[in-house]
Amino acid sequence: MIPPRLHARLDAASAAALLLLPSALQWPARLVRPLALAGLGVAAYSLATRYREDADGAIDLGQHRMLDAAQGAACLAAGLAEKASGPRAFLTGYGTFSLAAAFLTQPEGPRGVTLPPDAVAEDLGPDLVRLRCGIVNVAFIGPVNAGDRGWFLVDAGIGGSGAAIRAAAESRFGTARPKAILLTHGHFDHVGALEELAREWDAPILAHRHERPFLDGTRSYPPPAPEVGGGSMAELSPLFPRSPLNVTDRLQDLPGNGEIPGLPGWRWIHTPGHSPGHVSFWHEASGSLIAGDAISTTQQESLSSAALQTPHLQGPPAYFTIDWEASGRSVRRLAALRPQVMIPGHGHAVAGPVFLAALDRLAQDFAARGVPRHSRYAPRHVHLPDDG
User: Where does the record place the Metallo-beta-lactamase domain (predicted)?
Assistant: First the structure.
């Protein structure tokens, strides 16, 4: 990360270059004027920036970083469209520099716990399968060739996942339809194909009662927290959908006793923090846990980690988590179960003693390893019910 003093000096140099260099090189007015205005803009938001947390200023480094990235992208685009070699080199170089500065001033995300490759699990047992749908997982519960209404789908992936989920279901269960679609929660990347699959299979949707407002069209999720850092996924989070889905005609509340109708041996566990009604699914006899977004096995804030599925144990995706105290309690509750195998919402399925040791470390030191240094939700702004 660029030190604050150096960052301020680089901003001053950037403003001066935009204001003075094009005029000194006698570039045409079509370039000199807009670049001078851009330089004044850089100078203005730099003077208004709190480069240190204890300093005065109207905007923080997170907002400053976004402005750097925006004007850097604009300069890079203008440079790629410019025909004159000198201005093109300046604009593309300056745009690249500004984007790099935005990246290098990004705060670190949650520390988490590094997972070795041997913690990754492929064989999850005869009745449990993980399917990766882009950046997120769905799960199938039920034996191969289970009869009609003899299996369950957990979550419904990102938008466009319907065909992949349908194909995987047909490969395992033939034409049999699921008994129900179980939801860990209703964020956009877990309900992308929900409406179409529920309609096609004529299946009910079961979710926690505290998640209902986000699934009956009543309420949008709270704004994300891109300031958590950790990578491009966090930075892009303001662009992610958070409007409510409306599946009222098929939506049912999970029973209050923790049971799942038609699925003996499995229970749901209220694991709030990432969302008010987030739940995980637990099969005690086999030690199988479907954690949803309560626990991740990759650094979901980072686009590269999310794409490459780099093994790394941490709490929920930080940019959409609205109560960190509740998240810590949920992680500790799941760690106390001593799961033998776990499917997270994001990242590889994991198993074995190395995974359990990492989970214990995360649970015991969640304040230091699970919580980002910066988040509008780190102080407990939102009260989430912790009852079942």
Answer: 135-346
Q: Any idea where the domains of the chain sit in the sequence?
A: 4-104, 113-369
Q: Dihedrals φ, ψ of 342, to 5°?
A: -140, 130
Bridge partners of residue 133, in order along the sequence: 136
Q: What are the tokens at 175?
A: 């034409």
How is domain 113-369 classified at the architecture level of CATH?
4-Layer Sandwich (3.60)
Pairing of strands 279-283, 288-292: antiparallel
CA 196/CA 198 separation, integer angstroms: 6
CA atoms within 13 A on the CB side of 279: 29
Buried b (16+ CB within 10 A) or exposed e, 47-75: eebbbeeeeebeeebbbbbbbbbebbeeb
Kindly indicate the confidence band of residue 295, based on its pLDDT and cuts at 50, 70 and 90: very high
**Tokens representing residue 136 in the block:** 């997120």
Q: Are 195 and 167 in contact (CB under 8 A)?
A: no
CA–CA dist 189, 346 (Å, integer): 10
For residue 21, with 0-12 CB atoms within 10 Å meaning exposed, 13-18 middle and 19 or more buried, which class applies? middle
Residue listed under structure tokens 């570039």: 27
Using alpha carbons only, how large is the chain's radius of gyration in Å? 24
Answer yes or no: is pLDDT of 307 > 60. Answer: yes
Q: Output helix, strand, coil percentages for the chain, rounded to the nearest 5.
A: 40, 15, 45
Q: 351 forms bridges with which residues in the sheet?
A: 341
pLDDT at 66 over 80: no
- Residue 75 CB contacts under 8 Å (≥ 6 apart), including other chains: 38, 91, 92, 94, 95, 98
Q: How many CA atoms lie within 13 A of 50 on its CB side?
A: 11
Inter-residue contact 157 to 266 (CB < 8 Å): no
CB count within 10 Å of CB 335 equals 19
For residue 4, what pLDDT band results from cuts at 50, 70 and 90?
confident
Q: Which two tokens stand for residue 304?
A: 């590269």
Residue 256 has pLDDT above 60, yes or no: yes
**How many whole angstroms from its chain centre is CA 66?**
18
